[in-house]
Amino acid sequence: MSLKLYVDALSQPSRALLIFLQASNIPFTKCIVKLGAGEHLSEEFKNNISRFQKVPVVIHGDFHLTESVAILRYISRENAAPNNLYPKDSKLQARVDEYLEWQHTNIRANCAMYFRKKWLEPKITGEELSEKLLLPYERRMVDSLNDFENLWLSSGAFITGDTLTAADIWAACEIEQPRIAGYDPESERPVLSRWLNNVRKSLSPHYEEAHTLLNKLVQKSTMKKASSKL
Amino acid sequence: MSLKLYVDALSQPSRALLIFLQASNIPFTKCIVKLGAGEHLSEEFKNNISRFQKVPVVIHGDFHLTESVAILRYISRENAAPNNLYPKDSKLQARVDEYLEWQHTNIRANCAMYFRKKWLEPKITGEELSEKLLLPYERRMVDSLNDFENLWLSSGAFITGDTLTAADIWAACEIEQPRIAGYDPESERPVLSRWLNNVRKSLSPHYEEAHTLLNKLVQKSTMKKASSKL
Question: Which residues form the GST C-terminal domain (chains A, B) (predicted)?
Fold first, then answer.
């Protein structure tokens, strides 16, 4: 049965699913949805792909499903995935689930909101948010990143222990995002930095492929920051 | 193997898990954690129950797990639950998961934040938030409730169709919460109101038992509102 994945390279959970499918050797067709051009807001997308008008979406045969974590679980049930990114063992799976549920209103919400307020909305409106108005968003992101380091990275090389799982993929894709807005999540967080580099290395070459556009935008943002200091 | 559930009656996901376990006839020991008295913030709780210092938590044998949705899945795997609140069929389960993932940054985040700002924080600090500062929280909650009605309740009596599932329990427990703060989610939402009453009825008597304290607080809030209008 055919599996189609609708994604945009600037959507964090889109990248997570892309990397998961590729690292698991699960065949799929990649369908690009240009969020910047508003393709997800079209009537055609709403009626034929997803009423939620977001990415990622998968279509498996004629079954349409949204929400990256729900998709991860569905695909893991439907495919005998050749690795342990989403473990079958009940307790190990519960540990991965525990992170994937925790992240929504922590790492995901707070890194994404900072990225949105600092980089995305100014791109659309042409108006930058003042430092004062940006500060609460930055504080919440910093708190989440510190919590992430303290609560999740203290017991092994990866989130649930010594083995890389989907939890690490989902976390890393969110934590890369504020780099576009000029924030370095690795600065003064040696444990997080070591973990992030472990994840990048373990998932090569899929990880850097999924982050090609992001890394270009990070480079641009770094150059802009450096030139503004001259 | 013994199953202990740590809960507080004013925690929405605590109520959801309580109702799920009772409606599924899964035996467990209920352990009350008084959030109002800060019991979850003690060193004893942090070291012996959960490093996250939140409820709900389950301890199954010596396995400690947080995050209500992760707990729901774990318990459903470990127990041959006699009903279909968390369906075994892969596609039906994906539909329940889709809602449980969607709700985190929608219904859960926005109803809980309104409750927090309007009722909980003034209880702690003694200072009420001005209507102007409360407005963005109310708007986000109203948008989420409207989205919930439009996106999830248009195809059947329950969220995923004609059968009650865990998605309905988790949603209803969140949607009850702002009632404590004097907001009626059923007002001008006939579809949501019909659904909510279906859920309450289908899960009787566990549902009203879990909501005893909440309904007392709602009554108090309604009386306060009425007397301020005299």
Answer: 89-227
